[in-house]
Write a structure and sequence with these properties.
heterodimer; A: alpha+beta; seven-stranded mixed sheet; 5 helices; B: alpha+beta; 60s Ribosomal Protein L30, Chain: A; 7 strands; 19% helix
């Protein structure tokens, strides 16, 4: 069921955006895996079996993306995910990525939560800081043609309300997805927009460890 | 003159399958892109020396970044190409000044050798303009399996006073080459053609 055709990695170093040059550039990266959509061209009621099969794909992608970004793991401050489904598929096929894509990056970043609860979409008990990567992984998805662009949202891995790190990265794989393909995407960054200055919660002030603040 | 680099973008495209056929080993193409300020934006300058110097700097930087992204030894690079997109306040000749006089020599160091011409493309464009960077075998331009192209595009560049400069390097040709011609294994690599 898992048939990967292409792997596309994208890393960017942002030094400035017409303001002061940053001492350390913001590093943002995305990885897109182009695979066959096994459900293309028909309505398949039961698509869930594919979700578990995507787990190892996600873990491999998260590690590849981190390697391509070439920054220490502790430097990863935001994440996001997405999917572009080819024309012979449906949006729901892209939604298969929510659990395996999110779980993969959380695992990479040191999440200590209950995987079974996460997979079931249930809350888990939290006290203090139960690990890293507490925030929901923001996402976008769409059905699109080859070369379609997807704006993948990025937010802080521990507190979704860190305003200076609200961001998005445009991801586009030239030539993909074909009608019977899906592009599954993971994205991460080292944090603050290069000239962030609109206030709000700072990452160093995260106190509740509830994934939000 | 060192380039005022706003942004560096590095992409690797690995193809494992094409048309249902396994690609073994996978083809891998990298493109390294710099978004720089155009020092001659908005005016006509007879002399383009600043951009020529920037071209030399970027040939080394982007060539090294692309080879590093592929994770290969320089000698294992097989094909290359270059391109530039000039923002609206610049002229096509600005792209030529970056690409042609001095970019090639340091790029050839980065890919070790490079007897062949570095194929190129240039255009004027705006934010998100895509350019197809032509690819040709680095030592023998007639290697038919390595005629290819890779898209380069930066969503927020070039602004009017910027230039997008791209260098592409691969460790392979097209995924399933089967239209004959000179083969990679037959390259002499002396005259840059065969």
């Amino acid at each position: 069921m898992i048939d990967i055709r292409r792997v596309f990695t994208h890393v960017e170093h942002i030094h400035h955006e017409f303001g002061p040059r940053a001492a350390t550039p913001l590093v943002r990266g995305a990885i897109g895996v182009v695979m066959t959509n096994p459900f293309a061209g028909r309505y398949e009621p039961d698509i869930l079996p594919m979700m578990a099969l995507l787990d190892p794909v996600g873990v491999d992608m998260a590690h590849r993306l981190h390697a391509a970004m070439d920054v220490p793991l502790e430097a990863i401050a935001t994440y996001g995910k997405g999917a572009i489904v080819g024309a012979a598929g449906e949006l729901e096929h892209g939604a298969l990525w929510h659990v395996p894509g999110g779980y993969a990056m959380r695992e990479l970043l040191g999440w200590k939560g209950d995987r079974a609860a996460y997979t079931a979409g249930k809350a888990e008990d939290k006290s203090g800081q139960p690990g890293n990567a507490l925030s929901i992984v923001p996402s976008t998805k769409k059905v699109g043609p080859p070369g379609a662009t997807l704006d993948v949202p990025l937010t802080n891995i521990n507190a979704s309300y860190v305003r200076g790190q609200f961001d998005a990265i445009e991801v586009r794989v030239p030539g993909a997805p074909a009608a019977d393909e899906i592009v599954f995407i993971l994205a991460m960054s080292t944090g603050y927009r290069i000239h962030a200055r609109v206030g709000g919660l700072l990452a160093e002030n995260i106190a509740k460890w509830d994934g939000l603040r | 003159m060192t380039a005022n680099i706003r942004k560096l973008v590095i992409q690797v495209d690995e193809t494992r399958k094409e048309m249902g056929q396994d690609v073994t080993p996978p083809t891998r193409r990298a493109v390294a892109i710099a978004v720089i300020e155009n020092p001659y934006a908005g005016r006509y300058s007879e002399n383009l020396d600043q951009l020529i110097a920037i071209g030399e700097e970027l040939g080394a930087l982007l060539g090294q970044k692309a080879v590093a992204a592929l994770g290969i030894a320089p000698a294992d690079a097989q094909s290359y190409g270059k391109a530039a997109i000039v923002g609206e306040a610049g002229e096509l000749e600005h792209a030529a000044a970056i690409l042609h006089p001095k970019l090639g020599a340091p790029l050839r160091v980065a890919v070790e050798k490079g007897a062949a011409l570095v194929p190129s493309a240039k255009k004027r464009g705006t934010l998100g303009t895509a350019i197809d960077v032509p690819l040709g075998h680095k030592d023998a331009a007639f290697v038919r399996s390595h005629f290819d192209a890779i898209e380069a595009r930066v969503s927020d560049a070039p602004r009017a006073n910027e230039i997008v400069v791209a260098v592409a390097v691969t460790d392979s040709g097209r995924p399933l080459p089967r239209i004959g011609g000179l083969q990679h294994a037959e390259v002499k690599g002396e005259d840059g053609l065969r």
